[in-house]
Amino acid sequence: MARPRIKDVARHAGVSEKTVSNVINDYVHVSDRTRRVVREAIDHLGYRVNLAGRHLRKGRTGIIALVVPELDVPYFAELARHVIREAEKLSLTVLIHQSGADREHELAALAGFGSDFVDGIILSPLALTADDLRERAGVPPTVLLGELLEEGADHVAIDNEKAAREATEHLIGLGRRNICAVGGREAPGLGTAEARTRGYLAALTEAGLAHHPDAVLPVDDFRMPDGARAVTGALRAGARPDALLCLNDQLALGALRALHEHGLRVPEDVAVIGFDDVEGGRFSVPTLSTVAPDKAAVARVAVHLLHHRIEEAAQTPQASGAGAAVREVQSPQDRVVAHRLVLRESTEGVA
Q1: H helix runs in 207-294, sequence order
Q2: How far is residue 243's CA from residue 178's CA, in Å, rounded to a whole number?
């Protein structure tokens, strides 16, 4: 059986093809009755919008790329799910690419993978430099996630420094005074770890607590084994923390294991808080307190910013011909998304 076309829907509903198109595109100037009749005809005939044809008529592919460092990190997996859901609402397909935090891979993404295969990029960079962003041509449209390297592209993140300060203040409010930062980095820089470390140090200073360099526990990576190794090493070296600020939940889950193996109770002996609010932290023993970024909002803002930039690019003479109307291009947007402390067993119930 031939695939139903828009003219078949129009004939079945007793309306024009233009009216069917208006309903499909959700134009407001269609009566409720007409909209209902057309929707019923679409359902009856099993009509499906030809998205490929629609995108090609606009000179696009309808595909955007989400580029993250590692696909098996729970935060990025959960974020990808939200990005896909938001993109589907705009009839966009998401290509997911793993960069491995490698600069060459991130540069390739920034350049659109050297082809016109994608209309735009949502990129979570770890290895790019400010110079890399300065040198980019701005094509394809790009939205950056995480810490802002430099102006030049739209950017979506939480306030990592503020979030870490609030988490540390919570630990201090519990009476904890010897707080280690697992995964901390005191070196100057604009990365997420650096921002969270600054927030941790700011909270200690504001509370009048001394900062001991050994209390910042660096890691090679931000996975559970790294958290376990960092805490095990500190304990064997004689550290006696009464609280741990872990810069992501994976580190915190590893830290919980190390504390258990050394006979330390959580939260009685050591309170633990992480970042990201991944699903595993809701099922650990004890359950994990964490800083929860609004991942759904990060995805929503990023996808809609990118969609706006794709539409904006389509209005340029290069995209639509010399006679096209040109919109005024907006300056790069820096959007800060909400976060909140989620307090569970690993810090709560402490006298």
Answers
A1: 224-236, 249-261
A2: 6
